[in-house]
User: Fold this.
Amino acid sequence: MFRREPISEESGALDPNRSIALFEGLCEDNLRELVQTHFPGTWSAKPGGFETSHTLHVIEEGKVEITLPIGQGMRNVPVLIALGPGDFFGETRLLFEEPLARPRVVSESGARGRCLSTHSRPGGLTPLECLVAASPRVGANLIAETCRRLLSTSRFVPSHAAPLRLGYFLLGATTNTAEIVVAGTSGLTSQLGLSGPAVVHALTTLEGAGLLAVDRGSSLRIRVIDRDALTDYLGITHTGHEDGGASQSI
Assistant:
């Protein structure tokens, strides 16, 4: 179980496009003992969803996508990473006690696997600390894969998520107005939680797609040209009403 092809040792550098299995590099005996001791729980999920808990999940069968949480009701959410047998997820919720991304089962037959114990151990050690103490190799795999995902996400988010976040915001901000007036890109950075360059990229992307009209004067005047086209672009259902007459300043 949990087996995949080993990492090539031709180079000391890791491939940023290849995920690292949590138990990679362990012999069969060590793997069996580690799973029995530290991963006593099992999980299973049907296609399309997953109920997360504050622990680490390892996939035995099935496929899981990790998606970016942008807004409620969105269907076409950006996929950060696709995972299969041997991969793990739930590390951010385990470490930071909040989900920084959402798992979603995509295999037709569902998915199943094992999960890290949630019970504290003698000496006050957390289950994760006990796991790393028992197997430094697993700890190294966890660190390396988490860093790889952070690198991948930092490259992914500005180009893919920024336009979606801006579009989702504009649908809400222009529900009863024809346009919004913003004090430059800085007026949007705090609203969207994005950097200035990411906001500029989002405006350019949606404007180039013919979804927005942007007047770049002393202030930014942003008008949604076609709400239906924008909702299709985002893949969401929006039920707001327009009066088309006013503008809103933020």
